[in-house]
Give the backbone structure.
Amino acid sequence: MENNLKQKFAKIVSVVKETVSVSTLILGLPEQDNFAFRAGQFVMIGIPGFGECPLGISSNPADAQKQISVTVRQAGELTEKLNQLKKGDCVTFRGPFGNGFPEVASNLILIAGGCGIAPLMAVILENQKRKDIKIQIFIGCKDAATLIYKEKYKQLQKTCDLSVALEQKSLLKFGFISGSVINAIAKKKLVADAKVFICGPEAMYSSVAKILLEKGIAPKDIYMSLEKRMHCGVGVCEHCAIGTKYICKDGPVFDYEFLKNIDKYKI
Ligand SMILES: Cc1cc2nc3c(=O)[nH]c(=O)nc-3n(C[C@H](O)[C@H](O)[C@H](O)COP(=O)(O)OP(=O)(O)OC[C@H]3O[C@@H](n4cnc5c(N)ncnc54)[C@H](O)[C@@H]3O)c2cc1C
Ligand code: FES
């Protein structure tokens, strides 16, 4: 059985500087590992001497045996160090952890706030060429300067119904819309018979749930990827408890049928 507590090393194949404080690290993995993951799962990435932190995998699961990508936003000391790494440097990694998003068997609505688009990008890359489903994407961000994956959106507009909502009007360009992601959802006719996957700052979750319920989407069809400080990543240390469950082991993705009973996510 694979030991999830054992760290391995991955070499940085390239770095994409997304914004002043966000970088995407493309990590080469040892081929013999046969690494595989499900969109929405995360890995623990670290630097010896500085610790490790959970990061969602943002690349296509189909490419996992060769390489994976993680997008890191500078929050504290470790993520600042990760943002300074260059091609050829090594990081430690463990995982994948968590449940990930459910299998995609129907239309899809993806809602991201800020860097929350990172794990959703794995869902997009895996499903964007499918002809049997429609994908509608809403991305909310403060302004164009903090928007990540900018270079991907023109291409995405060809296969998906994409709305990028920027809260700061002065920087609007490339056809982005003005205002909050909630307004963008409110104004749009949502694709029918869809599952909704959401990832973003905690503060947006109850307002997103409210508008989706108002638009007739059932709690069981709404999936939210949650974040909390983690230590072990395997359901031992209790740091990431949420109700009767653990984000690291039972999540990070939970359906709203479960979350609607947790105070923080109630509407
Ligand atoms: C399942 C999961 C997936 C994640 N995916 C990503 C990702 O794809 N990209 C990314 O940039 N970040 C992601 N994060 C958040 C990331 O793990 C934290 O930003 C990181 O642990 C901060 O480490 P640090 O040592 O640099 O900062 P610290 O010194 O540990 O923290 C700096 C500040 O950030 C706050 N903080 C730390 N961790 C979290 C957290 N999990 N949630 C909310 N606030 C926190 C602290 O309270 C503190 O104020 C994810 C977290 C989880 C739980
Ligand atoms: S991080 Fe230790 S229980 Fe979840």
Notes: The mean pLDDT is 91. The two ends are 42 Å apart (CA to CA). The pocket of FE2/S2 (inorganic) cluster (ligand 2) is lined by residues 230-233, 235-240, 246, 248 (CB under 6 Å).
